[in-house]
Structure formats: structure tokens, C-alpha cells
Amino acid sequence: MRDLIAHADSINHLLSRYGVKFGIYKNNTFHEQLFPFDALPRIITHDEFVQLDKGLRQRVDALNMFLADIYHEKKIVRDGVLPTEFLYASKGYLPECEGIMPPAGIYSHISGIDLVQAKDKSWYILEDNLRIPSGASYPLIARELCRRASPQTFRQNDIVDNRNYADMLRDMMDYVSAPGMRVILTPGRYNAAYFEHSYLAERTDSALASNADLYVEDNKVYYRDYLGQAQRVGVIYRRLSDEYLDPLTFLPESLIGVPGLMNAYRAGNVAIVNAPGNGVADDKGIYYFVPKMIKYYLGEEPILHNAPTYLPFYEEDYKYVMENLHKLVVKDVSEAGGYGVVFGSNLTSEKLEALRETIKREPRRFIAQEVIDFIDLPIMEDGQQVPRKADLRAFVLSGRETRVWPSGLTRFSRQPDSFVVNSSQGGGFKDTWVLSR
Amino acid sequence: MRRFCFTYDLALNFSHPVSRHTFMLRFVPPSDAAQQLWGVDFSCDPQANLPVSRDAFGNRLLLGHIEETHNALSLYVRGDAVLRGEPVKGDCPMFYKMHTPLTEPDDAIRAMADGLSGTTEDAAMQAAARILAAVPYTKGVTSERTTASQALAAGGGVCQDLAHLLISVMRVRGVPARYVAGLIPGEGETHAWVEVYDGARFIGIDPTHQKLVDDSYLRVNVGRDSRDCAINRGLFSGFAQQAMKVTAKMIEI
User: Fold this and answer.
1) For A102-143, what is each residue's pLDDT tens digit?
2) Does B22 contact A249 at a Cβ distance shorter than 8 Å?
3) How many C-alpha atoms does B27 have within 13 Å on its Cβ side?
4) Of A254, B54, B85, B251, which is the most buried if we count CB atoms within 10 A?
């Protein structure tokens, strides 16, 4: 471990040299930022991981069943488990996806589930990311560099090798693929996660394509290679969001989409990873219902718990939220990336009042959660270990079977006392070790 | 019951050659209890395969791709139809109750939804009368992107705007309503009207002509609003201005 700390600077230097960066837009200009790496790993014990693995697979399986149900029969709504309002008011619900059964029936192929560990060691789910969860490449490449910097660390500790992520990804893509090649579709180099797109394309032996490389003919998707030859595409791991995917179906002004893609997809001639329309299942308002989905679809008790959540939409919860706003965290269901998250305890009484009014006007737009006092992890700052809040994004891949990647992205807040760990908010990341015994 | 022959002619001319052109033509009218189609035929110049595809609203559409450079594109559809003018029975997807950006109501639209009475059909006819009084049929005031509330504020609009307004008012009342793009006898552009759902049937109402849909209406597409029903959409590569000419015709036979 001391070895790794000693090498932290050189690892960060290499990360920056390899272009391990993410981009953000601020005041309409594009900046690339480094994602600071901290050498002290998060360690998950073998027993802990066994529990997490079971719980995550259960959750993702239920979410996949939910998506198939929502875009077909909607039994969960008809049976009164999910109120109609929540489904149809969710921005992530796309009527354009009604009736589409994706190849192999899988909607969420790559699920990024964000968890935190409370002081009593129990894990809580903070949110599900089922659209385009990013971030797996960061711990992947950091592990690679750590192994190079200090091989003995990985010989002396029983750490599960996590370098199989790309193989897992590729197996999954092949499993759901229609006849044809693998493609990773990127919106281009001004995207926040462009580094990851190119890295994963290389590692999965997929073509890294922009929309100009793809076209739809005869309800099938083709890739124009560098000789101008057309090759059939079987699976597209797309890194652009639903509304830009196909200008003939979604936003007509999208210049980064592939016209006609949704028709090829609806005809079953191409797999799209992840399926369009998944936003309905990772909506912060739908989150509340996930434990109910697990019972409804699987007849099982949820193994992993949600953070205690209140929906102001329900009268009982509304009252509680109004009375306890000062100690709750309020999230705008339509925002992501750590935006639209407000801690009641940080607000002045006027601002608290204003928030009350906003919730009163649009109760469906917010959820409120108890602030979980999650554990601090040590990070190195100026040669000293200091405690910081951290979360874990676990990656679950659904193909022939549902598998949890034995690693994950541990993000931490660089500000003391801050609970917001998102990279777009200036956080850093760590390697995540899962112990093999 | 009446019999008609219809044609739809789309001509695109480009100021400079274009290529990599993907286009969609949503003009494959369905056969159902209200209308029976036969002899439907399509053609395309330059030649391209036009596989039939479906959308989420049950409409069929043609999807073509022309990789090579071309200066013009024309698409032609013809067919015969027997029209019965009966409301179609069936289940109604719940999303027809939800507003879209084009039908999002404002206070003026909500006020219009107040005090309508009687059956779904009665209420819709009353609403249609109020709408036409407030928004007389006027060309050139609105565009295809005008929302229901903008059309009401403008005090004028075309069949598309009147249809969006009626949909908006009915959805405010909790009644599922959908947009219909189709043809009526005559020559010119396509027409638009509304279907409201009364719990069992989709009842067609034409706010522009203030009447219930009868056996002179051919339904081509349905959707939540005009965007879902867009008859043609396409994207090409090239620095060119595009001139579009649409001629739709339906004559009794």
C-alpha cells in the first residue's frame, strides 16, 4: 500500500498523459478536466461482495422485467403497484418505444448502480443508472497503472482481478447482437466521456463510430469502413442519449443521430445497448418503487435497501417532508450528475421556504431522502490521510446471465463535509478492491 | 359508405447535389373497421428499396436510403379506399391522455375546457366550436412548430393548430385525444383532425369544419400530436437548399 501511495503522483501523471479526462461545459465553453486519482483503494471484503453481488443482480433483473412490462402490458400499473401518474409524467418514459422487444429481451445491458455504505456497514442504493452509465474505464485503467507501479501489492493481497470488464462487455454485446459487427457510437470528442468511448472500443474490438459512419438501408444498419465499404452492424453500444439517437423518431434537429435507426431496431435487425426508453426505470421518482418491483416481479424480499425516501406526491409523505425539510436531501427528479440536489440543512430559512413553495407547486418533481451518514474513506492530501465522503458505482452487465463486475468506480468528494461526489462536481476516484477471500 | 381513389405526390428539388439521403414516408393508410384499402402502390425516383416499418403509434411507414448523389427525389403513393365513417373500437393507450410540448395547456386553454357538458362527443363538439370562434381558420399566421397555446394567443391558425387546441382542451378534461393526419375529398395538402376516446371508441371530430368525421375522411396516421404524424421526414448530406412540393388528391369513384 505504501508503494502505491509513493507512486500516486506518477500514476496521476500517466493518467493525464493517456488522456484519462472528462469534459465539462461551463459558461458555454468546453474544458477537459483530469479526474484525480487517489492511491488508497476502497476495499470490499469477500463476504460483503457476495451480498452485494446477490442484491445487485436481483435489483437489475427486476428493473429489466419492469422495462419489458412498461413498454408492453403495463401489468404493474394495472395492478396498482405503480400509480399511472408516475409512469406517464416520467420524462424517461418514451411512447416512441412502445411495443419494442429488444433482442434477447434485455433493456438494461449495462447498469451503473450507485451505493453508499452507512456507518453500521450496511449498503444503501442511492440511484440506478440504466441509460448510459459511464465510468468503468477509469478504475480499469487505474488498476492497470497501479499493477505496473507496484506489482507486488497485487501479489501479496488477495485481490480479484478486474481486468475482465471489456471481455464481459464484449460477451454481452455478442449475446444480444443481430448478425453483424460491434460498434460503439460516440457523439464525438467534445463529449464528457470521449476517453472512455475510445478506450472501450479498443478493448472490445468494436468500431468507434460517429453517426456519419452509419446509415440505415432496408431496415438494417450499415457501417462505412475506411474504404467506403458497407458492413452490416449487429449491435450498437451507443454513447449518446435517447433524444439524439434518431432524428426521424426523436429530436428532428439532432445532428449526431442515425436516421432510421429506431426502425431497424424495432424490426429486430440491430441491438441497441442500452435500450432507448430506459430512463423510465432510473427516474428518481421511480426509484422509490424499485423495492416494490422486486417483490412484484420476483416474489423476493429486496436484499439491498433504498435510502429512506419520501414522495411528496403522497399526502402522508408530503406532510413529513414539509415538517422535516431542514434535515432532508431533496432531489429534482429530472436532473442528473449531482445537479438539482439540495440539502435542507444548508439552506437559510428563506430558501427553505422557497423550496417548500416549489415542492407544493410541483410535488411530482421532487423526492426527499433522509441524509445517510455514510462512512468516510481515507484519502491522501498533502501527504496526510484525511477522511472524505465516498460512494460506489457498481457495474452490472446483463447478457446470457446477469453479472456484477468485481470492482467498481469509487468516487469521493474532495471538499470536507460535502456529500456530492460526482466527477462533474470536481470529485476524485479510487480503485475498488474486491477481496477473493 | 363511399369509394375514393387517392394519390400523394412529394417532390423534393435540391439546389445542389445531395447524398446519403435517408427519408421516411409515413403514408401507408391502415385498413380497419372505418376504412378498407386496396391497390396501394408506391414508387420512388431515384429508385430505392422502401421496406415497410412500424412506429409506436401503430402507423406503418416507408423508410428509404439513397447513398449516391442526386438532385431531386420524388415519392408517389396511390390507392383506393372504401370509407365507412364509423368510429373505431379498441383499447386506448394511456399516453393519449398526456400532454406533449405542442399541446401543453396554458390558463387560456384551461379556461376553454371549463363548463363543457354532455357526452365525450358533445363536449368535444362544444370545445371545437369555442376553438374555431377564438382561432378562425387563417393561413400564414402559424408554422408547423406553433404550439396550441401560441395559436390561441395568435388568434388564427390552420387545421393543425385547431387540432392541437382541441386535443389540449380534451386532455385538460382527462379525455384521451389523438391527432389524425389524413385526406378529405379534393386536391391540395393533407388535412388534420382529432379523435377523442369515449372509453370504447375513437370518435373523429374535425374542428376546422365543425363536424363529426364521416365517410369522406381517410385516416393516414395517428399520434399524440402533429410531430408523431409527420408524413415525411428526412436527412441528407450536402450544402443545398431544398424546395418541397406536396400534392395530395382524393376523388370519389
Assistant:
1) 989 999 999 999 999 998 889 999 999 999 998 899 899 889
2) no
3) 28
4) A254
Between CA B160 and CA A132 the distance in angstroms is: 36
Domains in chain A, ordered, with CATH? 2-298+396-434 (no CATH), 308-370 (3.30.1490.270)
Separation of alpha carbons A164 and A148, rounded Å? 17
Pairwise CA distance, residues B232 & B245, whole Å: 12
Helix extents (H) in A254-378: 261-266, 279-282, 284-287, 290-293, 315-324, 349-361
Cell of A32: 477537459
| Interhelix angle B159-172/B120-134, nearest 10 degrees | 130
Q: Is A218 near chain B, with CB under 8 Å?
A: yes
Cα dihedral B204, B206, B210, B212 in deg (nearest 10): -20
- What is the ipTM score, two decimals? 0.89
Q: Which residue of A has its CA nearest to B224?
A: A95
Interface probe, candidates B22, B26, B59, chain A, greatest A C-beta count within 10 A: B22
Residues 6+ apart with CB under 8 A from A384: none
Mean of the pLDDT values across residues A177-199? Answer: 90
pLDDT digits (tens, 9 = 90+) for A315-329: 999 999 999 999 999
